[in-house]
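Deviation from plan, reported transparently: magnesium ion complex.
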Amino acid sequence: MNPDDYRIAPKSKVDLSGWNAADHADIQDKELAKAILKENRKVIIDLQERLYAENAQSILVCFQAMDTGGKDGCIENVFKGVNPSGCRVRSFKVPNSVETSHDFLWRYHQHTPRTGIIQVFNRSHYEDVLVVRVKGLVPKSVWEKRYEQINHFEEVLEDRGTRILKFYLHISKDEQKRRIESRLEDPAKHWKYSEADLKEREYWDDYQKAFEAVLERCSTKTAPWYVVPANHKWYRDVVVSTVIRQTLEEMDPQFPKGSVDVSQVTVI
Ligand code: AMP
Ligand code: MG
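Because the crystal trials were delayed, the predicted structure below was used instead.
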């Protein structure tokens, strides 16, 4: 498995119908995938502690997907065991009246990570060019400008030491059908089902087009988008955790040197 296979090069053309949502590369089974995920998590947990102690850099991880795409499950599996003091998850729902009375980035900017923190966005500022575009919630002249505005926003964060990773969890339309049906069959999953899921499903093709526009226009060298094959949850988790692990390894956070000569300290 090479995560670069799923990374969108800046300004490339993207046709999602050509991306196999059921791909699992050379990872043959769930057992192997679970072992890799476990190993990745160990490294992520260790490097997160260093990131927190170093207090100089931060990470923002954005998750987007079609309904039932697996954002919640992926976040749970990849970040399990990370010290909650240094990791935050923020979910974004339909904006409230205070939020809509500001510019579209306002509510997101308040939750970008300070130094030392891993911040996860479950849905993100990209909703403002996804659902907003598909449902025509603002005129085209407004959402059309947002791709550039988002790129600038992310640049501001990067200049302050934030690494940005963006994952589109790619499931097929058939897989979504199976997942909605399983939500209907399992009483423990009923709470996850919303009438809106079926309504949104009717807009499948429009959403795919809106995702393609995001991938084409907002994947940059430093804040890349990944199209993660997500029909197999275990493979999805391997890809996402590998990218996060490799990014943290590249960032190479260090424990700061103490400010005193500890050899001279006696605890009485
Ligand atoms: P869920 O994540 O399933 O609880 O659903 C959250 C809902 O909020 C989804 O239907 C999103 O499309 C919607 N949502 C999130 N951000 C926005 C936004 N900026 N404008 C409109 N709807 C949004
Ligand atoms: Mg939902």
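DSSP finds ten helices and five strands in the chain. We consider this an acceptable substitute for the interim report.
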